[in-house]
Structure formats: structure tokens, C-alpha cells
Design a protein that fits this description.
The protein has 192 residues and is an alpha/beta fold. It has seven helices and five strands, in the order αβαβαβαβαβαα.
């Protein structure tokens, strides 16, 4: 966490020092509720700023409330959503559905879509690929395509996304209990 915080601070400083936008396209980057991973989104923000794009980084753990209103007010040409975990991919789908009916493009990415490729069939928009190195070229290509009114995601949303989200408190409790028992064993005096 310490190293991640240092990298995030450095990336934020580099973003602040990036040249002013020279392209007319505006891009919004966000991560869904409960998604704490932000380094790849910050790096993408920096790379796109260096390419001359006007990028608004909303951050990690973006709440669903007012997301649609924010996007309408900003009027971006592209919204990029990222998720690293299966449980947060469900929130990403909720954010994507908030964009239904808005004339913008949607792209998404994150390690979970590489690990479980079947998820890509459920999400509207363009998948950014498995390699962060090629993401700027992919975004350039997406922005050259005509914007279309987004439709809501397929109604056959994978049930395991919602089931996992509902089960997370119980899973976290069991893991915490297991670690408590493990730390008791580790802290016991060694009499050998």
C-alpha cells in the first residue's frame, strides 16, 4: 500500500504537469463502487493527457448516485470504466447501464476481463484489451468511430456477479476469522 501510494502521488504530479489538451475529444475515466485499484486508471489518464486529450479522472470507488448526471454535464466523447475484481465488475456493469441513452462511447478494461473473457459478452462498449501498452492506440481507434446511443447491458447478466456481491460480507468475515486464528498460533511462545 505504501508503494502504491507513492506511485499514485507521482502519477498525480505528472498528470498535473502534463501539457494542456490540444484535442477536442473529452474522455472520462472512472472505477465502480468498491473498486480501490486506481494505478492503471491514473497511468491511462497520464498517457492520454500526454497524447493531448482532455481527460477527467473521476477516481476509484465512484458512487452510482449522480453518475449519469455527471456524465451528461461533462459531455464526454468517451467514458472508460475499469474493474480489477469480479465483485467490482458488477458495479462496472451498473455504471455502464447508467449511460444508456446518452450519446457517447463506452470502453472498459481491467484484469478481470482478461482472466474471465466470457464477461466481455455481457458488457456494452469496447473492450480495451489485455495490454496497457496498447490502450492509447485502441482509444484513438474507438474515438475515430461514430458515437452511438448506448443501450443497457444484456438482461442475461451473469448471476454470479450479484451472488458474489451478496456473499462478500460472509467471505470477508470467514477470511478475517481464519487470519485471527492464524495470528494467535504465530504469536504463541515457542517452547521447542
Amino acid at each position: 500500500h505504501y508503494a502504491s501510494a507513492l506511485v499514485a502521488r507521482r502519477l498525480n504530479a505528472m498528470i498535473a504537469g502534463a501539457p494542456l489538451p490540444i484535442r477536442k475529444e473529452k474522455i472520462v475515466i472512472a472505477a465502480p463502487p468498491d473498486e480501490d485499484h486506481m494505478l492503471s486508471s491514473l497511468l491511462m489518464t497520464y498517457l492520454l493527457r500526454r497524447r493531448g486529450y482532455d481527460v477527467v479522472y473521476l477516481g476509484a470507488d465512484v458512487p452510482l448516485a449522480n453518475f449519469r448526471t455527471t456524465i451528461i454535464a461533462l459531455g464526454p466523447d468517451l467514458v472508460i470504466l475499469t474493474a480489477h475484481l469480479l465483485v467490482t465488475a458488477s458495479g462496472l456493469l451498473d455504471l455502464a447501464n447508467e449511460l444508456a441513452g446518452i450519446n457517447t462511447r463506452l470502453a472498459y478494461g481491467g484484469p478481470i476481463f482478461h482472466r474471465i473473457p466470457e464477461l466481455r459478452q455481457t458488457f456494452p462498449g469496447d473492450y480495451l484489451g489485455d495490454d496497457l501498452k496498447g490502450v492509447v492506440a485502441e482509444i484513438d481507434q474507438i474515438l475515430r468511430s461514430p458515437a452511438q446511443e448506448l443501450q443497457a447491458a444484456h438482461p442475461e447478466r451473469p448471476l454470479y456477479l450479484d451472488e458474489l456481491r451478496a456473499m462478500m460480507p460472509a467471505i470477508e468475515t470467514r477470511v478475517s476469522e481464519a487470519f485471527e486464528n492464524y495470528s494467535v498460533i504465530l504469536s504463541a511462545p515457542n517452547h521447542y
